């Protein structure tokens, strides 16, 4: 009976180890292609709950399962590390996706800056750049958020923004020519990412 119980607990340990890493890996790919948002954070949260559950199972099983003492504690710690690895993998995917977006924006920013130098003001809309400064307006490269939001804001000659909102998340990826981003913007905290800023709302 004790052996069967220990085998069952080991299966839960293995599940708790693999679930956060698997979710983190999948969500890293999701973030890379521009589909990341509250939904991926929610799913990764499930992985965290699973890892926490495994830790609790390990603690509760120690008095009842033969050989479980040190092993249960070890598996609980491994599950926590797995959760941290999953979170890290998701973060890497998000950084890669936004870095790709920033790279796609370089020709567009160069064209806006050239227009600004030639006319003394930024274009009213991005299509004013076509066909003299650009053959076409490039997309963001993010599958879920393919278009740029463009305008003037906060004393800047122009602002380039990717609206990354989904459900209750209203994050955005912002470019200002000056690069002088405040610590808080549009109701959220600002994370610098090169010459861009990611706004967590």
SS strand fraction: 5-15%
Element pattern in H and E: HHHEEEEEE
Instruction: Work out the helicity level.
Output: 40-55%
Indicate the overall shape. elongated
Query: Count the strands?
Result: 6
State the major sheet. 6 strands, antiparallel
Radius of gyration: 23 Å
What class, by secondary structure content? alpha+beta
Lateral strand order in the biggest sheet: 1-2-3-6-5-4
What's the pLDDT, averaged over the residues? 74
Which runs of at least 5 residues are low in confidence (pLDDT < 50)? none
End-to-end C-alpha gap: 51 Å
Assembly type: single chain
The number of helical runs is: 3
Can you put this structure into words, describing what you see?
Helices cover 53% and strands 12% of the residues. It has helices at residues 2-32, 38-61, 68-119; strands at residues 149-151, 159-163, 172-175, 184-185, 188-193, 196-200. A 6-stranded antiparallel beta sheet has the order 1-2-3-6-5-4, with helices on one face. α2 runs antiparallel to α3 (68-119). The longest helix has 52 residues, at 68-119. It is elongated, with a radius of gyration of 23 Å.
Map the helices and strands.
Elements: H1 2-32, H2 38-61, H3 68-119, E1 149-151, E2 159-163, E3 172-175, E4 184-185, E5 188-193, E6 196-200
Helix pairs in contact: 1-2, 1-3, 2-3
Task: Give a nutshell description of this structure.
The chain is α+β, with helices and mostly antiparallel strands and 201 residues long.
